[in-house]
Write a structure and sequence with these properties.
By secondary structure, the chain is α+β, with helices and mostly antiparallel strands. The protein has a domain at 9-16 and 49-141: 2-Layer Sandwich (Tetrahydropterin Synthase, Chain A). The protein contains three helices and five strands, in the order βαβαβαββ. The protein has a five-stranded mixed sheet. A hairpin with a 2-residue loop joins β4 (125-133) and β5. α2 (74-86) crosses α3.
Length: 162
């Protein structure tokens, strides 16, 4: 066991907010199909949301610092990698076709997962929750984030759930 194996395994969750606009529109669909599928979210002028993002990392508490590794720098990483990239932006210009057919929040949360998972300590990102509105939110969990007895298994690192 490592030098900090004695320490408890702790989850640290921080919440952030950013605003962005988008138009849900799939160019492969007819105008009528886009209107039927996406409803008012297909408005040609777009619409915006104030998103609330919760980021949970997991790790052992360091004997030297008393923090989970990466915990003290989590805010800086999220601000640099997510907030500065997406705040007050048009998501239609930031979500690529490889992320999804249109700028849904499912595509956005999966993209944010990939960004943060590559920027944080390897394997430390445990859970994301992205609220589009108070009644519409999307969550992702790491498959191999063991020991979460308070939550049912929701292993979806590449999918989302409303």
């Amino acid at each position: 066991m490592g030098k900090d194996a004695w320490a408890p395994l702790v989850e640290v969750t921080r919440a952030y907010q950013f605003s962005a606009a988008h138009r849900m529109h799939n160019p492969r669909f007819s105008p009528a199909d886009n209107a039927r599928i996406y409803g008012r979210c297909n408005n040609p002028n777009g619409h915006g949301h104030t998103y609330r993002l919760e980021v949970t990392i997991r790790g052992r508490v360091s004997r030297q610092t008393g923090h989970v590794e990466g915990g003290p720098t989590l805010d800086a990483v999220v601000r640099a990698q997510v907030i500065q990239r997406f705040d007050r932006m048009n998501l239609d210009h930031l979500i690529a076709p490889t992320d999804g057919p249109t700028s849904t929040t499912e595509a956005l949360v999966a993209l944010i997962w990939r960004i943060l998972d590559g920027a944080l300590v390897t394997g430390q990102l445990c859970h994301l929750r992205l609220e589009e509105t108070p009644s519409n939110f999307f969550e992702l969990d790491r498959d191999d984030c063991p020991g979460r007895p308070d939550r049912p298994s929701r292993s979806r690192p590449t999918g989302a759930r409303k």
